[in-house]
Amino acid sequence: MDILGDILAPYSSVIAKCVCTVTCLHYMSGAFLLNEIRKVGCSDGYPPDPFLGGVVLTVLSCKLGTLMGDEAMVKVNMFGFSINVIFTMIHFWYASGPFKMKIWTKIGVAAVFTITCLAYANFEDPYKIEFRFGMLITGLLIGLVGMPLLELDAIINRKTTNGLSLPMTLAGAVVSAAWVIYAISIKNSMLTYQNALLLILSSIQLSLFAIYPSTISLMDKTPSLLFLEQKHSNKKTSDPLKDIQNKKLN
Predict the structure, then answer these.
(1) List of residues 6+ apart from 75 with CB closer than 8 A
(2) Tens digit of pLDDT for each residue in 109-166?
(3) Which residues contact 185 (CB under 8 A, 6 or more apart)?
(4) 71 within domain boundaries
(5) Residues 4-48: pLDDT tens digits?
(6) Which pTM value belongs to this model?
(7) Is 25 among the domain residues?
(8) % the chain with pLDDT above 90
(9) Measuring CA to CA, which of 46, 153, 193, 231 is 20 to 30 A from 10?
(10) How the protein sits in the membrane (predicted)?
(11) Residue 52 burial by CB count (10 A; 0-12/13-18/19+): exposed, middle or buried?
């Protein structure tokens, strides 16, 4: 790895710009999930965890970038923070009344956790904080990226990857690979292993798309999902029989 680092070191600034661009595009991939929510007309079936987790991680990653003196990390995570806040607001807008209360609870938990971590960073030993804070973020990233794998049994039983977003998963794999290359170029072993592990998790999820289709049969749909789809379709189409009866009355 040291030899590869020596080869990539002269191009670290160029690699950093590429990584920033790819990461910003990855943050925008959440728009695909929001588009699915828009089509259904309700976000109750889609947990806000990816967006709230993105807000927490970008704030903490900005702090880590400041500790490391990495300007590229700070800039890209500031952009990611803004995007995830906007996406969270849109998700909240499409939520029903009871589900909005659950979202508020999660927002409160996320805020308390973030403030606690930032406070810890200010009191920890300056010689140890970079590694320990980096490990904390690594754990959060693994939890966020690996969260869909908790539904692995359901995916295998139903033989469908419905509920997983292929664009977001693919973008995550590309971003992780880009950060691995950048970490090697600046010879940062923590970033290298962190993103290598994320790349493995993303690759596992991508393999599920190759094995199982991202469609869901009518028998597998929940009553709430069927109701939302029927409600959405009724807005676009009308009943031909009612149209004929109305014409006769006129």
Answers:
(1) 20
(2) 999 999 999 998 888 887 888 888 888 888 888 887 777 777 777 777 777 776 677 7
(3) 5, 8, 9, 11, 12, 15
(4) yes
(5) 777 888 888 888 888 888 888 888 878 888 888 888 888 888 888
(6) 0.69
(7) yes
(8) 18
(9) 193
(10) Multi-pass membrane protein
(11) buried
Q: The domain containing residue 159 runs over which residues?
A: 1-217
Angle of helix 30-40 relative to helix 71-93, nearest 10 degrees, comes to 0
Contact assessment for residue 173 and residue 202, using Cβ atoms and an 8 Å cutoff: yes
Can you tell me the distance from the alpha carbon of 114 to that of 108, in angstroms, rounded to the nearest whole number? Answer: 10
Question: Does 249 fall in a domain?
Answer: no
- C-alpha span between 137 and 144 (Å, rounded): 10
Residue 149 to residue 143: CA distance in whole angstroms = 10
Concatenated DSSP letters of 86-133: HHHHHHHHTS-HHHHHHHHHHHHHHHHHHHHHHHHHHHS-TTTHHHHH
**How far does Cα 241 stand from its chain's mean position?**
45
Tally of domains in the chain: 1
240/28 Cα distance (integer angstroms):
41
